[in-house]
Amino acid sequence: xxxxxxxxxxxxxxxxxxxxxxxxxxxxxxxxxxxxxxxxxxxxxxxxxxxxxxxxxxxxxxxxxxxxxxxxxxxxxxxxxxxxxxxxxxxxxxxxxxxxxxxxxxxxxxxxxxxxxxxxxxxxxxxxxxxxxxxxxxxxxxxxxxxxxxxxxxxxxxxxxxxxxxxxxxxxxxxxxxxxxxxxxxxxxxxxxxxxxxxxxxxxxxxxxxxxxxxxxxxxxxxxxxxxxxxxxxxxxxxxxxxxxxxxxxxxxxxxxxxxxxxxxxxxxxxxxxxxxxxxxxxxxxxxxxxxxxxxxxxxxxxxxxxxxxxxxxxxxxxxxxxxxxxxxxxxxxxxxxxxxxxxxxxxxxxxxxxxxxxxxxxxxxxxxxxxxxxxxxxxxxxxxxxxxxxxxxxxxxxxxxxxxxxxxxxxxxxx
Length: 416
Known about the structure:
Blueprint: H1 3-56, E1 68-75, E2 83-91, E3 96-109, E4 112-121, H2 123-158, H3 160-170, H4 186-236, H5 238-272, E5 280-283, H6 284-294, H7 296-301, E6 305-310, E7 314-317, H8 319-335, E8 342-347, E9 351-357, H9 386-397, E10 400-405, E11 409-415
Parallel strand pairs: 6-8
Antiparallel strand pairs: 1-4, 2-3, 3-4, 5-7, 8-9, 9-11, 10-11
Helix pairs in contact: 1-2, 4-5, 5-9, 6-8, 8-9
């Protein structure tokens, strides 16, 4: 969940709860105020009737209206205190029950005691209260909506430098200049300056590592050539060969493996350093058939059943790199296959699929493209760099390389 979304949810929920509580409190306060006004009106009516009775010695003429009804009842004992109440009372004029505010008080006139009940309609008060609450609720809704829109616009603008920096970092590649500009927000300035410093250190370390790898690989070529030359000389000396054949063969094999490893590391370094320009047209169908023809003797020795389905496919790549890519994939598919196994190749305009049987079980899909990863059951002559090179080449070209195991076949898919 985005920070902006989480903030909005908390802000809106808090605002709704606050406004809801405020509306409830406002309702009861307004209800109290309006009822208080009705009570004052009833008190005024009581005072007028008492004043009239004192001046004239009798009760005033009772005239009932739609909003007010007065009922007089003679009683034996005077009523000491006035009583206020709200209740549903039948309105004879309206012929329906209405919510009334009622005042019951006593009045003594000419030695007679009367109970006087004054009812005033509370319907208009309730209608006014509902209208006020409705207006308040609509205003609250508009305030919440306006607050949400303003927050969304303001926060989106405030967070724009952050998203701009994240977009720049997401598209950043080593050996490319990185500049995260200063902003008007202190926290984002701190973030950008920290990231600029971190990337500068990474670039420096990368340059040191790249130079070391390149220099080491180049420096290894000379001693490897010396070892190979001297090994060949020893192999030609029959006296030495008679007593040390096994030792010399081991040295020769180790030198060849070290040479292949050195060449692979050099190739990886060149790929990562973008030493190759991808500006050549590569005919993948022709390349696949050529490599299959070159590996035909090895496939025949294992009695492999090979199925090839290809269509003409041409992409912009690098001829030498494409040759390395196909050679690695087909070489692995044949070298690690089983006697009498199968090799299926499908090529179309969208993808290249190479599937092969093997006595080796499923490979670890999380490590398969890591350098020097080798399954424990693979042959000793492998150096664990072949699939890493293929993966780097696909990344360099923008292709997608996937691996999965069907239970019978190892399947590698390159999506162009």
